[in-house]
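Tip: read the tokens left to right.
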């Protein structure tokens, strides 16, 4: 296998997988792609991909990437009767970016090792927009030698690629990340609703927070959803619940108390119970409003998506005459 020109395979072209493989194709990498629903991958042909009908057709690739929705899906595409690691040939490296349990990851790692295949756990942090704008982050664990081989390709896919250790510890890193994601989203929803019920528009509070020491890439990125209430999913509430389930199970196994995460898990479950499972996790804001006795209404947002371009969130301002007539206070 040439370090610079390995043959590539890709399993899974859902929202994230589709955007990630496009980055490889745009970098003039030749990729053979499989997806359970072939039609969802067909448009990649125009970008140079070869779409195949069976996972088995990827078994002779040097490196195969995968990103699927859940443990059962990964077990099926890797170890099922027609799975990648059940074929006569086997790839030299498998790089998996699914968010699955450490137990599932370890099971596949063992099976891969028996075939002479190095297995890298490489879960990602970010949304489709993050992939498209080159802001994706990747945590990787496994063989350092395999990591060094895959790193040039991972650098095409993501902005930040961090080697976090051996075996499957990247799975725990990703679960820790997504627990924090949920906790921060719920906390942000609480303070936004608190301010709004006291008379402060959401866009005004978000402008202040984003410009303060508490502002972050995430708060800026979530500003459009929090202001306009557009719940088009970047990461669904149902997927967040799955990661909380896995993360809380890991906390029990490791005997680590996580009371704030546990409380947030209840709020996530409640949001799904109210019909937000397929919506963005920002739907926690809508339910926080309802729990506080208010129905939130969309507010205007001027430009930007909060990630690839800045969001100009301008609060309503009084006229200069009104300002001159009002006493000025400073703090």
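Filled-in amino acids:
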């Amino acid at each position: 296998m040439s370090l610079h020109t390995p043959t590539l395979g890709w399993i899974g072209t859902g929202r994230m997988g589709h955007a990630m493989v496009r980055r490889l194709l745009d970098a003039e990498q030749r990729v053979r792609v499989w997806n359970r629903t072939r039609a969802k991958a067909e448009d990649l042909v125009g970008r140079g991909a070869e779409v195949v009908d069976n996972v088995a057709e990827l078994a002779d690739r040097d490196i195969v990437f995968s990103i699927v929705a859940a443990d059962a899906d990964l077990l099926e595409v890797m170890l099922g009767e027609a799975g990648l690691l059940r074929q006569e040939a086997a790839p030299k490296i498998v790089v998996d970016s699914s968010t699955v349990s450490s137990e599932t990851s370890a099971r596949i790692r063992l099976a891969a090792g028996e075939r002479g295949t190095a297995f890298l756990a490489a879960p990602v942090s970010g949304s489709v927009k993050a992939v498209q704008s080159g802001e994706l982050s990747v945590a990787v664990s496994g063989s350092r030698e395999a990591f060094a081989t895959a790193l040039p390709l991972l650098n095409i896919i993501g902005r930040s690629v961090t080697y976090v250790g051996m075996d499957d510890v990247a799975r725990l890193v990703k679960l820790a990340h997504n627990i924090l994601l949920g906790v921060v989203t719920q906390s942000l929803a609480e303070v936004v609703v608190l301010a709004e019920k006291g008379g402060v528009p959401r866009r005004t509070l978000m402008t202040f927070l984003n410009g303060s020491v508490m502002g972050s890439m995430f708060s800026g990125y979530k500003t459009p959803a929090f202001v306009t209430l557009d719940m088009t999913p970047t990461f669904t509430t149902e997927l967040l619940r799955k990661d909380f389930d896995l993360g809380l199970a890991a906390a029990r196994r490791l005997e680590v108390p996580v009371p704030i995460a546990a409380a947030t898990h209840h709020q996530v479950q409640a949001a799904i119970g109210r019909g937000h499972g397929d919506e963005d996790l920002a739907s926690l804001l809508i339910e926080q409003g309802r729990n506080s006795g208010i129905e939130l209404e969309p507010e205007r947002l001027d430009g930007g998506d909060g990630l690839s371009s800045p969001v100009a969130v301008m609060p309503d301002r009084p006229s200069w005459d009104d300002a001159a007539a009002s006493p000025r206070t400073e703090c």
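The chain is about 45% helix and 10% strand. The chain has two domains: 8-167, 172-316.
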